[in-house]
Amino acid sequence: MASVAPAISGPHQYLQAQTRWSRVEIAFWLATLLPFVVAPNYLVLASQVAITALFALSLDLILGYAGIVSLGHAAFFGFGAYTAGIISKYGWGEPLSGLLISGIAAGLLGYLMSFVIARFRHLALIMITLGFGFLLLEAANSASWLTGGADGLQGVRMWPLLGIFKFDLWGVTSYWYSLIVLFLLFLVSRRLIHSPFGLSLRGIRENIVRMRAIGAESRAHLQKVYTISAAMAGIAGAVLTQTTETVSLGVLDFQRSADLLVMLILGGAGRLYGGIVGAILYMVARDQFSGINPQYWYFPIGVLLIAVVLFLPNGILGGLAKITASERLQKWMRTLPPWLRGAS
Amino acid sequence: MTTPVLSTRGLQKSFGSLVVASDIAIALPQGVRYALIGPNGAGKTTLINLMTGMLRADAGQILLGDDDITALGPEARVRRGLVRTFQINSLFPDLNALEAVTLAICEREGVSRTWWRPLSAYSGAVDEAYGILKSLMLAEVCYRHTRELAYGQQRLLEIAIALATRPKVLLLDEPAAGVPREESAELFAAVTNLSRDITVLFIEHDMDFVFRFASRIIVMVGGRILLEGTPEQISADPRVREVYLGGAHHG
Predict the structure, then answer these.
(1) Rounded CA gap, B92 and A214, in Å?
(2) A57 touches A191 (CB < 8 A)
(3) Chain A contact set for B114 (CB, 8 A)
(4) Which parts of chain A sit beneath pLDDT 70?
(5) Which domains does chain B have, with CATH numbers?
(6) Containing domain of residue A190, as a range?
(7) From A114, A228, A264, B55, which residue has the greatest number of CB atoms within 10 Å?
(8) Is the pLDDT of residue B249 over 60?
């Protein structure tokens, strides 16, 4: 994630260096295990953070990489959440297959939506995704025989994970489960963005007109990434249902889509870790601030958002990358022993 | 004579009452370096837009070899080898030069659909991209973001990306626009030294470059082709002189 450029000898070495795991990345993933030791009372929150991080990662794929703005991504999150809840309510509480089914269902919905999405950009996209989000929320609200409507879906009972680990009140299983799902889908995303397909997505984000002039199949690419992103968002929603054993209309709420966008912008879009870092900051800040003043906790978030957009236009990670790439820091880094320098 | 690589028949286009292309018939043989000249508003860029499919013609036909491509969209024309660059840089600011050219190659080869293999696994595409960049003197800066490149280098990158699509016909819309004169000469030298398999048509205002680098010249005026010929024929033609020098008489 930090772009400390090593000496480059050729194009192949350069590209391989792009995909190599840096020490910062490894350290980051090891640090995700810390809550088990440091904050065992906060595992429920940690699990929520991991779920939200996964949701943010799914948005990053379309927004950060392909440049598709969406203000209605909660539609897929909610669709996955309800799918997981409903199949459990009607007798199938096995978590892993439930996750798979929910992911496929949300992916299918995303695929259908992608035919519309791939034709528009910018403001039109914001309106379409927003409208689609409202549509799904109202559909879930009115279909109360299926979703429980405003009362929420009752009777979700999950079977133990792999038949062994019960979802406990302290969130131990929940955090393990959401963390592993997050990590696996992170690996998939990481693979995706370093592939030729990922390069084409960035091309679309940078200049879709030029993509036409090189004969690119931009529309097909957009449909594909939108489907993948929708499936991921659906899986995130399903994990939320499975770990909390309840679904409310809030999973489809506009607020959820908007919060998600804020997190991604805070962390830094198009950086893979941006959504994850944003989710951690946002969720922890919300937890802390709302403890102090539950009514006005959006105030500090607002200040933070404006400050980040003003001073760190590429988000917190973009700012960090800039700092690590600066001459002075590079100079200082060279005085450190090699094992401390981070990126190998 | 063999079939021309690119030809148009009776191409028409108007915006409202403004006729921007009227009965355009050209035939470009393989390997020739064509210059397309004419005063501002003559319809030169419009003609490129029509040929590449960025604009739809009102009437007429466009043929690539023997195939009628009039009905095809811009992407499909590119895949058949009809490729353009832009007068104003149209690049990928946040990609580096290597990525931009590799992207074009991956799209050409159809590997851009695969998302489970890393880019570095396609070493053929990467080598080819690096080779193209090298031939255009961009190898040294190929890891730099496009937006950090000097303007002249960005103009070369425009051509590098177009070459990566393996064009049969390359349409260059003022390739040296905004580039200092000394660099323009280098740029045109690079263009004329391209493989003879590629037919090149370029729009250019600087007559020195036109006469130095074009093997044939097409003159357009007011949406029509005034004449077509070798540089000698063009420079000797009184009508061309009138268009460029005597235009003031007609207002």
Answers:
(1) 12
(2) no
(3) 195-197
(4) 1-9, 333, 337-344
(5) 6-250 (3.40.50.300)
(6) 21-340
(7) A264
(8) no
Q: Identify all chain B residues contacting A194, using CB atoms and an 8 Å cutoff.
A: 118-120
Helix (H, G, I), strand (E, B) or coil at B127: helix
Structure ipTM: 0.85
What are the tens digits of pLDDT across the range A195-209?
999 999 999 999 998
Interface A–B counts its CB contacts (< 8 A) at 140
Cα pseudo-dihedral A11, A15, A18, A22, rounded to 10: -80
For residue B147, list chain A residues with Cβ-Cβ distance below 8 A.
Answer: none
Q: What DSSP state is assigned to residue B185?
A: H
How far CA B163 is from CA of A26, B183, B199, in Å, comes to 40, 19, 12
- Nearest chain A Cα distance for residue B52, angstroms: 8
Residue A11 lies in a domain: no
Task: Collect all residues of chain B within an 8 Å Cβ-Cβ radius of residue A18.
Answer: 119-120
Cβ–Cβ gap A206/B108 under 8 Å: no
Q: Work out how many domains chain A is built from and give that number.
A: 1
Residue B59 host element (H or E): strand B59-64
In chain A, residues 206-235 whose CB comes closer than 8 Å to chain B: 206-207, 209-218, 220-221, 224
Residue A2 within a domain: no
Instruction: Give the residue from chain B lying closest to A199, CA to CA.
Output: B103
Give the domain CATH number at A167: 1.10.3470
